[in-house]
Amino acid sequence: MEATPGTAQVTGHGVSTSVVPADHPGINELFALLAYGEVAAFYRLTEEARMSPDLRGRINMARMAAAEMGHYELLRSTLDQRGVDALPAMVRYAPALEQYHRLTTPSTWLEALVKTYVGDAMAADLYLAIAGSLPVDVADVVRSVLAETVHSQFVVAEVVTAVNASGRQRSRLALWARRLLGEAVTQAQFVLAERDELVDLVMAGGGLAQVTDLFDRLQRTHSERMHHLGLS
User: What is the pTM of this model?
Assistant: First the structure.
């Protein structure tokens, strides 16, 4: 059943209020941003897997990398169905995402683990918050792409063990996690400043207050994850 934008749509996920029309230009921009993020994450994970001291860590990272490319294919196919060539659309987001990764290159395996856990979670928070105001089929694609970020949960036990054994390690990783948050917020603000379509998409859920709430939510959930990692 096709619903009119701004009305409640009943789906298998429950009732969702869509305030954005399916042809909103920000949707294509969101998919392109997500697609580049998946490709960048794939290369990051394959590189950082080499830092693992054992095969288990390398395999876990490889599984996550494989999932990222699966997500990319879903996004590329979705953009193609919407009449958008994915590659040129994605390239616009390369500077911000590559800058984030350059500024947060881990120097140790534990830093790589924290970045995987915290970084994936912050991205999921941001995109899932936007999904609430999207048409059901669009929101379902976003949620599908982010669903497998739980793979990064494997890092929790290893990080907690390390920080419980070393107060110095706890302090170093706590500072590192705060740096990750700061850089992520900076680059997210840069992306929004460059793409009016994305700003309009975000604000559709509640105006300027929606943008402010997004960044407040990142801070709150980041604090919760710091606690889970034993870094608070």
Answer: 0.84
